[in-house]
Design a protein that fits this description.
Number of helices: 17
Largest sheet: 8 strands, mixed
Strand content: 5-15%
Oligomer: single chain
Order of helices and strands: HHEHEHHEHEHHEHEEEHHHHHEEHEHEH
Distance between the termini: 83 Å
Number of strands: 12
Radius of gyration: 41 Å
Shape: flat
């Protein structure tokens, strides 16, 4: 016979029952966890600072008592300190006397370096020489009667024609040397071998400078300092000089021997310029990024129309009024249909900061015709010179006018407030009239409906 089909009970259940069981299980697990926390059987970790002492040690009880007394005294002292701190008034920070020397690693004032050194190396940025010079510091240097040397730094960012003019002008005042210092010289990357660093430093122009220092100070012990304006490359010049002498490591704020008679002060001196120029804007570019329109408008006053058309590839326009609108159309920066002048200005500032657009300030001074760059000095920096075009600026001064506009709150007079109140009352009366009219219409409709029902 055929066996009957054995029907098994289904394990299916309603969702209500299933979720209820899960809820009960969660509650049960929570109760067990609470019991484990509050249970007395759980061993508590006891941290005792009492040292372990063997039973056979002599005077064991006396030693343990001394240790306990010391611990009690420490606890009592902590409690007293807390009470005194709560009762005592808040401490006022005492103002430290301001001194010329700052912490190591930061530049000090140029006058401090002048007073502490026997000779100076004045670092000048070749892109904007007038901004790197200071009449006030020059007069103080003449009064002190100390020898100094100009270092025309960053020669790789300026064409040779402009470099020769500035060299002849500076050489008529004091001995001048060309220099090229980069971040590669300062880098402490493990991939660069110290020997490679020294070879790079030798080709930066330090060879002729060190030869001049050895000739001028052959016997007397002299201390040489480095001064310069902001972001002129003072630390890079120091590091390249040290590496050319074989000094790979030197603490800032100290003195390092270059020779038996010459020592270099490794803390640079800062010469603050009273005028705001293009170099100060580029060094503090984060402050001016939100005002790209105002900065570029001020820069356009120092440019010529022919140079801007050539370097920015612009069509003919009215200079300098239409410089920013034509730039906005060139870089395709629009807000809706109107050109975004601030965005176009920021593009120009970024190109200047990243050295994608080279620039220099023209030399208005009349240089001496007989003064020229020596061939030996030019050969050291020949491989680094910029052989392309650069944007010439008529002046280093940039008069940026930033107008911060604030929203003015509207001030109401007494007459205006009375008129507003009257208008409000009239509007309320009109609303009441409209409501009464709506009620009358509703009553008429209800009466007509009653008549229809009858």
């Amino acid at each position: 016979m055929v066996k009957a089909f054995n029907k098994k009970e289904s394990k299916r259940m309603t969702c209500h029952k299933k979720y209820k069981i899960r809820k009960k299980v969660r509650e049960h697990n929570k109760k067990l966890a609470k019991k484990l926390k509050t249970s007395t059987n759980k061993k508590k970790k006891t941290s005792s600072n009492v040292p372990n002492c063997p039973n056979l040690a002599p005077f064991k009880e006396d030693l343990l008592l001394d240790v306990l007394k010391q611990q009690e005294d420490l606890v009592a002292e902590k409690k007293l300190r807390k009470k005194q701190q709560q009762k005592a008034p808040p401490a006022v920070k005492s103002e430290k006397p301001v001194s010329g020397v700052r912490k190591a690693g930061k530049a000090v004032s140029g006058h401090v370096v002048l007073s502490s050194c026997d000779a100076l190396l004045w670092v000048v940025d070749s892109r904007s020489v007038p901004e790197s010079l200071s009449d006030e510091f020059g007069e103080a240097l003449k009064d002190a009667g100390k020898p100094y040397v100009f270092i025309l730094n960053k020669v790789d960012l300026v064409p040779l024609s402009a470099l020769c003019k500035w060299y002849s002008y500076l050489a008529s005042i004091a001995p001048t040397f060309l220099f090229k210092s980069t971040q590669i010289v300062l880098s402490e990357c493990d991939q660069l071998v110290p020997a490679a660093k020294q070879s790079i430093a030798k080709h930066s122009g330090s060879k002729s400078l060190l030869g001049y220092l050895k000739k001028t100070f052959p016997k007397d012990a002299t201390k040489v300092g480095v001064v310069g304006s902001e972001s002129s490359g003072k630390k890079c010049v120091m590091s390249s000089i040290l590496k050319s002498c074989g000094r790979t490591k030197a603490k800032q704020g100290s003195e390092t021997k270059l020779n038996e008679n010459i020592r270099l002060l490794t803390t640079p001196g800062l010469i603050e310029s009273s005028e705001e120029g293009i170099l100060s804007i580029l060094s503090n570019l984060s402050r001016y990024m939100n005002y790209g329109k105002e900065v570029v408008e001020a820069l356009a006053a120092n440019m010529t129309a022919e140079e801007t058309m050539y370097h920015f590839t612009l069509p003919e326009y009215n200079h300098p009024q239409d410089f920013l609108p034509s730039l906005a159309s060139r870089y395709n920066t629009f807000v809706g249909r109107s050109p975004d002048l601030a965005a176009a200005g920021r593009v120009v500032l970024k190109r200047l900061r990243d050295h994608n657009l080279k620039f220099f300030v023209q030399c208005d001074e009349h240089p001496k015709p007989n003064v020229s760059i020596p061939s030996a000095m030019l050969a050291e920096v020949q491989d680094f010179l910029w052989k392309g075009d650069a944007l010439p600026l008529l002046s280093h001064k940039v008069a940026v006018k930033i107008n911060v506009t604030e929203k003015k709150k509207k001030k109401y007079t007494d007459m205006e407030t009375e008129e507003d109140d009257n208008d409000g009352e009239e509007e309320e009366d009109e609303d009441d009239d409209n409501e009464s009219d709506d009620e009358d219409e509703g009553n008429m409709e209800s009466s007509s409906d009653d008549d229809d029902m009858c």
